[in-house]
Design a protein that fits this description.
With 347 residues, this protein is of the alpha/beta class. Helices cover 31% and strands 17% of the residues. The chain is built from eleven helices and 13 strands. It has helices at residues 93-97, 105-113, 135-139, 142-151, 169-176, 192-198, 205-217, 237-249, 266-277, 282-288, 297-313; strands at 7-9, 14-19, 27-30, 40-44, 50-52, 63-65, 68-69, 98-102, 123-125, 156-160, 181-186, 222-229, 255-259. A seven-stranded mixed sheet has the order 5-6-9-10-11-12-13. Strands 3-4-8-7 form a four-stranded mixed sheet. A two-stranded antiparallel ribbon has the order 1-2. The longest helix is centred in the last third of the chain and has 17 residues, at 297-313. The chain is globular. The N and C termini lie far apart (56 Å).
């Protein structure tokens, strides 16, 4: 494996040197427990943990922290699969089963946040692979990372499909008292059969929505990234309605749809899966994604409009941080009042 090929990203894209970690710092482990059977962990001591996002990226943030590479969620569409190729690791099953763990991430982040060259910019986590995947249950890197961010009052956000984030609820609340904290949970659909086949290593969608509900009950407003909306498998109007209704019932502060995109690495793995499970859709996908990684604008706009309309119908809209919107149960029927002026109420 080319561990030395991972280099520190400078402010001007990537520098060839120095390496993020060398081969002599890697320890490979396996654990004979049911939840980790078949998984190999490569423990490394990273030389840098703050990653600058390339300027050409579509991401709305400049800095990320990724304590893991590879992900046991095993989502067949995951765009991060290509990054495993940088290590000469397989981007298919290898991405799901060969997990790189930056065991010194908390101490390294604390040191980098204390540097006079760091100016307290927003840091996003969970944007490459999930920082609350199953490995986090064993390695427990996130408590130290959150504590460092809290102690430096550094703004941050987390995107996750994992329920393990609730373990760190107290740290999140402490951080929110001193800086801006954003939490989003990814729930692209509530269709159980679709979930089992495309996201086999993730908690069920209803468990993720329980996370949204619990965070809201503890004063941490949580949005939902409705991603991905999967063409021809998860985009029927009834499916979109079911998902938005469930998101609203969980008290999400917002819902943001994102249509499936298929970058190199992910595209090959997803299309192989599609050919095996839904061969009749292969040609339709080839046409829909003929121009690249993203679905056509007309399709993206259609999905966005449908979801936004449903969100308005179910009462999800912009709210202040920490103030999740909730759907109240229907009021009991009342006897008609005397004729007179009435005032409309908003749910």
């Amino acid at each position: 494996m080319r561990w030395e090929n991972l280099s520190v990203e400078s402010r001007h894209d990537r520098a060839a040197d120095p390496a993020l970690f060398g081969a002599d710092t890697v320890t490979t482990r396996t654990f004979d427990t049911p939840e980790f059977r078949g998984i190999t962990f490569h423990e490394v001591r990273a030389r840098s943990i703050l990653n600058r996002v390339p300027g050409a990226s579509r991401m709305p943030f400049e800095w990320t922290v990724n304590p893991y590479r590879g992900c046991t969620h095993a989502c067949v569409y995951c765009f991060a699969r290509r990054t495993h190729g940088y290590l000469d690791l397989d981007t298919g099953i290898g991405f799901d089963t060969q997990i790189v763990v930056k065991v010194n991430a908390p101490e390294l982040l604390r040191r980098q946040l204390a540097s006079p060259r760091w100016h307290g910019e927003h840091i996003a986590m969970g944007t490459n692979v999930d920082c609350y995947q199953r490995a986090e249950g064993r390695y427990r890197l996130m408590p130290g990372i959150l504590a460092a961010l809290r102690d430096h009052a550094n703004p941050f956000s987390i995107l996750t499909k994992g329920t393990l984030i609730l373990r760190d609820l107290d740290l999140l609340r402490q951080a929110a008292e001193v800086t801006d904290v954003g939490v989003s949970v990814s729930v692209g659909f509530t269709d159980t059969e679709l979930w089992r086949t495309v996201e086999p290593g993730t908690p069920a969608p209803e468990r993720r929505l329980d996370v949204v509900r619990t965070l809201g009950e503890h004063g941490l407003g949580c949005g939902v990234l409705m991603a991905p909306v999967i063409p021809f498998l998860g985009d029927r109007p009834a499916q979109l309605r079911d998902t938005v209704r469930a998101v609203a019932a969980a008290g999400a502060t917002s819902v943001t749809p994102l249509v499936l995109h298929l970058r190199p690495g992910a595209r090959e793995w997803f299309m192989a899966w599609l050919g095996q499970h839904h061969p009749h859709l292969v040609r339709r996908y080839e046409r829909l994604y003929a121009d690249g990684a993203y679905a056509p604008k007309w399709y993206q706009r259609r999905i966005t409009r449908q979801v936004h309309d449903l969100a308005e119908e179910y009462g999800i809209g912009p709210t202040r941080a920490g103030m999740p919107r909730r759907i109240r149960p229907p009021e009991p029927a009342e006897e008609p009042a005397e004729t007179g002026p009435t005032q409309l109420t908003l749910i």
